[in-house]
């Protein structure tokens, strides 16, 4: 996928997640979080209110440390598409 098409598909997947009002399972949320942070090159520390949540987020980020930004976008898109495919 070329960068422009990848960026557009990523933005659409993010919008789809943001528009969804039902809760996501915790494992899916952590993957979405990690892929999103990696895809957007946002390496700030997790800012959750609970230390345990921050620990899970930090672990999720650690797991994608060797993933490129484009790979993270692709993984995010696939995760979103698969999640909604099996939810509807």
UniProtKB/TrEMBL annotation:
Boundaries of every ACB domain copy: 6-88
Coiled coil residues, start to end: none
Pfam short name (any one): ACBP
InterPro entries, A to Z: Acyl-CoA-binding_protein (IPR000582), Acyl-CoA-binding_sf (IPR035984), FERM/acyl-CoA-bd_prot_sf (IPR014352)
Entry protein name: Acyl-CoA-binding protein
Source organism of the structure: Hyunsoonleella rubra
């Amino acid at each position: 996928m070329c960068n422009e098409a990848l960026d557009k598909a990523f933005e659409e997947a993010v919008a789809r997640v943001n528009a969804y009002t039902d809760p996501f399972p915790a494992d899916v949320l952590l993957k979405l979080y990690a892929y999103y942070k990696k895809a957007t090159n946002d390496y700030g520390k997790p800012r959750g209110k609970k230390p345990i949540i921050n620990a899970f987020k930090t672990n999720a980020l650690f797991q994608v440390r060797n993933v490129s930004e484009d790979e993270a976008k692709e993984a995010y898109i696939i995760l979103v598409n698969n999640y909604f495919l099996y939810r509807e």
